[in-house]
Structures are given as structure tokens and as C-alpha cells.
Amino acid sequence: MMAEVIDKIRKSIENGSEVLLVIAPAEKYVSTMIEIIKHISHDFEIIYVTLNRPYPSVKKLLEGNGIDISGFLFIDCITRQIGGEEMDGDRCIYLNSLDLSQIQVAIENAMNLLTSERKFIYLDSLSTIALYKSEESLMRFIRYLTGKVRVKGFVCTLFLVEKEMDDVYYSQLSLMVDDLVEVE
Q1: How far, in Å, CA of 82 to CA of 73, rounded?
Q2: Helix or strand holding residue 154 (H, E)
Q3: How do residues 131-174 score in pLDDT, each as one tens digit?
Q4: How far apart are CA 16 and CA 48, in angstroms?
Q5: 93 — phi, psi (to 5°)?
Q6: For residue 43, is it within any domain?
Q7: What is the pLDDT of residues 44-68, one digit of tens each?
Q8: What is the rounded CA–CA span in Å between residue 10 and residue 119?
Q9: In the predicted model, what is the mean pLDDT of residues 85-113?
Q10: Cβ 174 vs Cβ 20: under 8 Å
Q11: Could you tell me the residue range of the domain that residue 132 belongs to?
Q12: pLDDT for 128
């Protein structure tokens, strides 16, 4: 089943999709993230925006699953909030909060640092932003992010845990992405 998901993502990117929405059940959240990153990391430089796990935890998880993170730049929105230890300052931008303006500036700065032709943003996850911000703020943020991705020549995967967004906002979000990938 996961092979089908990865194949759909690859084909979608090959066919010109720039923004993908991946929806997965909560119990498959981590395994889906690992598989997507494992396959994408071979072909892209990656900006990984982590809203759920501190960078040291993400780093340990990815490396523990055999993923080479040398082509990654991380934006960590949680470590400072919880008083965690900052490390790898050359590879990770630490933010003070889940302030969407701060995240936008950090993403734009990170976009300017990547040099390869194939650049990817993995946003982990919309569900977390929805816990702390209004859905209207989330939609404005996604509209900004998807616009920047398209203008700057990136590919982006937005991750959403299923059933964690109101149908009205889900419909709006669907209009901003090129393809939808559902994990069963």
C-alpha cells in the first residue's frame, strides 16, 4: 500500500504537480512521513518544517530509518517553546513559536539558501497549525506558502491527519493544491 502512495507522489511530481496534499490516518502518520521523505530525499534538497517534533527527535527518527539528511535544512517551531536543546545551527533554523509570520519568513529565507535545481518543502503538519491557529489564519498561510512554492520553483508536500479539518476549509485547501494523495 505504501508503495502505491510513493508511486502516486512520484508520478504527480513528474507530471508537473508543485503542491501535494497528503492525508493519512493518525496511526500511519509517522510511517507515511518516513517513507515519503526516504524516497524524496534521493532527488531533492529539502526544507523540512517541523511543527510536531523537536529537531533532535526528527533527526534521530530520519537517520534511524537510514535517511541521509545532508541535503536537508530544518525549520523547528517547537524546541524553543519546550526549552529543548538547540543543535546543528547550520542545518536548523529555530523559531520561538508557531507564529505563522515567523514561519513564513523562515521558509522564505530557507528557500533562498537552497542551490539545487530540485527543491522540496515538507510541512509537518497542517493538523498541528490547526490546533493553535484559526482555520482562516491557516488558509492565509497555505495560500502564501503555495504561491511562494510556485514562484520559486519548489515542490511542496502538505501533510494532514485525516478528519482533522472542517469540510469547508478542506474544500478551500483542495483548491490550492495540485494533487491529493490519500493513505489508507
Answers
A1: 21
A2: strand 154-161
A3: 778 888 888 999 999 999 999 999 999 988 877 666 777 788 88
A4: 21
A5: -100, 120
A6: yes
A7: 999 999 998 999 999 999 999 999 9
A8: 14
A9: 94
A10: no
A11: 39-178
A12: 76
Single-letter amino acid code for the residue at 79: T
Angle, CA of 174, 110 and 137, to the nearest 5°: 40
pTM as predicted: 0.93
H helix or E strand, kind and range, residue 180: strand 179-182
- CA–CA distance from 113 to each of 65, 106, 129, 152 (Å)? 26, 11, 25, 12
What CATH number is given to the structural domain containing 143? 3.40.50.300
What total number of domains does the chain contain? Answer: 1
Tracing cell 509517522 back to the chain, one arrives at 30
| Pairing mode, strands 19-24 and 45-50 | unpaired
In a domain, 32, yes or no: no
Q: Are strands 179-182 and 19-24 parallel, antiparallel or unpaired?
A: parallel
- State how beta strands 92-94 and 19-24 pair: unpaired
C-alpha of 128 from chain center: 11
> Three-state SS for 53?
coil
Report how far apart, in Å, the C-alpha atoms of 177 and of each of 63, 70, 100 are. 29, 28, 19
Residue 153's CB is within 10 A of a number of other CB atoms, namely 11
State the pLDDT at residue 134.
Answer: 81
